[in-house]
Amino acid sequence: MPTPASAPLAPSDRLLCGPGPTNVDPAALAAMDKPMLGHLDPEMFEILGEVVRMLRLVYRNPEGLVLPLQATGTTGMETGLVSLTEPGDTVIVGASGYFGRRIAEIARRARCTVVEVMEDWGKHVPNARLLEALDENPQAALLAVVHGETSTGSLHPLAELGAALADKPDTLLMADCVTTLGGSELDIHGWGIDYAYSCTQKCVGAPPGMSPISVSAAGMERFAARSTPVAFSFDFELLRKYWTERPGAYHHTAPILHIYALYEVLRETLVEGVAERCARHVAAGTRLQDRVRDAGLGLVAEPDHQLPQLSAVAVPDGVDASAVQRELLEKHGIEVGGGLPGAPQMWRIGLMGPNATTATADRVFDALMAVLETKGAPVSA
Amino acid sequence: MPTPASAPLAPSDRLLCGPGPTNVDPAALAAMDKPMLGHLDPEMFEILGEVVRMLRLVYRNPEGLVLPLQATGTTGMETGLVSLTEPGDTVIVGASGYFGRRIAEIARRARCTVVEVMEDWGKHVPNARLLEALDENPQAALLAVVHGETSTGSLHPLAELGAALADKPDTLLMADCVTTLGGSELDIHGWGIDYAYSCTQKCVGAPPGMSPISVSAAGMERFAARSTPVAFSFDFELLRKYWTERPGAYHHTAPILHIYALYEVLRETLVEGVAERCARHVAAGTRLQDRVRDAGLGLVAEPDHQLPQLSAVAVPDGVDASAVQRELLEKHGIEVGGGLPGAPQMWRIGLMGPNATTATADRVFDALMAVLETKGAPVSA
Known about the structure:
2 copies of one chain form a homodimer. Chain A is 39% helix and 14% strand. With 381 residues, chain A is α/β, with parallel strands linked by helices. The first copy, chain A, folds into 2 domains: 15-20 and 274-374, Aspartate Aminotransferase, domain 1, CATH 3.90.1150; 27-270, Type I PLP-dependent aspartate aminotransferase-like (Major domain) (Aspartate Aminotransferase, domain 2), CATH 3.40.640.10. In chain A, α2 packs across α9, α9 crosses α10 (274-294) and α10 (274-294) runs parallel beside α12 (358-374). The longest helix of chain A has 21 residues, at 274-294. The interface between A and B is large, with 84 and 84 residues.
């Protein structure tokens, strides 16, 4: 009888320049080869403490709760929504892309009344429109926006929104930082963000597997005052105890090797400097975007609100977007993303984490041009 | 100014013989060093398919939904409870340890009416008592038991329970297989288990990070007929599409390297043979348990319901349990677990995955004896 086991894994080499995951920082890979501790080991507790300390520096939030959930970015989103609202609450959502719409969908599943402030794909949602919605719904428990809209490459003016909401303490501010943590300036405490969530596989440069979150002191007060229970798995108070109070606080088994990886990329980020790391992402993204425009191609996002690390390139008329992606992958070993369901035709090119370099920008752009030329696309490389 | 970065990671070497995590199978570690694919790469989709196929063979469930959640074992527990019940439903829970009690707590958070069938720590919950509870609550939507109670080392007679419930199709059967998948015989379909969940860091031998689940066809029908929404993150139907239907089904970014690790340990399990792997766990556990009894020490679980891979050793009177654990860790580099909150004093010794060998059983037992002798404990090594 043949063995029912599959063949040994033999994945191909890829330069991952889609919307995420990005290639993993070598320091993170090396970390996962280090001896694995038990999750209740005193040494592990030290490591958890350092991860929290470093993550606070990267998010710039000294208060409330900061830690990585063992979760996808979407679960980070969902955890914030269900933890900081109760059924029947009003939630205002700014949505001009796939992930803004996802926030609205999840808020509806959480039985909230959702006020969606929508804009077309690629646009940002003007803060004035969000504030107008809040004037009309002053009872709103939460206002949520996407800092970096991964589906279009649009960057929200988050600092300004935070400032405008400073005198509205009853409406918490939630921001999707999935594509911005580690790549764009963030000042979570200074900007008054009550809940931020991210992932590890984009600008942070670790493998996918965790969702770093930040909850303000006001967010923790809101959580403590809940009248309805939340899921045990993502209970902020149980997580806080597990991560920061030992011995004796058992909640789950932490994903130890992934935490090692996160530890090392946070360390590298602080050694490089958060501002310097963001500048590197800006330099790489700007290089790519300049070359895209010079070639006569369009970008989906507005120029004034373009996320550096994610470029959504509009597909020229008559070009088969998936065929281009496939050829990039098969002939050049380069992954770029396509548009998400409902979005206009686009290629999404990410330059994140270790791939945020002008050299990588050039490599992926040159390959795209080479493929487009074989397709007879009207570009001037 | 000193850099705010932490020192490079330098975890100590440990032989992990607690209740989990166990040391990682070298094949899993090697897998995580292979080139990382994007989660939507056609090659990755093949890998997801193979993981599902192999996991079905290990769980022995050809129907319904089988896949690993990006989640802790506890989230696997919670996902089953919230997905297969609706608020107000009755759930019968067999609880004779920490994890049975946790099922009851989570079911209460899910606003179910919980009927707890309790037994003392270390006892199993007799099937007759569970069936009696069902006779009294024939409307119960779900009956949940812990196959291997990680807090005491007690093994539930699950096959017999499944057979007894065969004529009660309206009450789904849920089993905690966190400590049994890959180490104890499981016939999820044959036994009529509607929902099983596990983890990857115990007998499976991968790092912590995922929760393999199995849902029967009846479970999926129950899910499809729900009248209340579930969390987006763990929606069985969305997960099914993401794992098994491409292209176009986006849901989250899968933890790619962890899936590589799981792929390789599932592969190794099938190459070794599931029955042979279980026999190896039995041989290792039996060796340890025989030596424990020969030394005049007690085991917390009943002899007829002793889980081979997890031995809960009763702490002799007058011995400081934590001091022994600490000395094992610091002087011998061996981790064993203590009792969980509320449990009697015990050491929990796991021989799981790559550590399920008689040689490891001897090594950990000899070290425990050496430490106990220095503490003047009344043992005959």
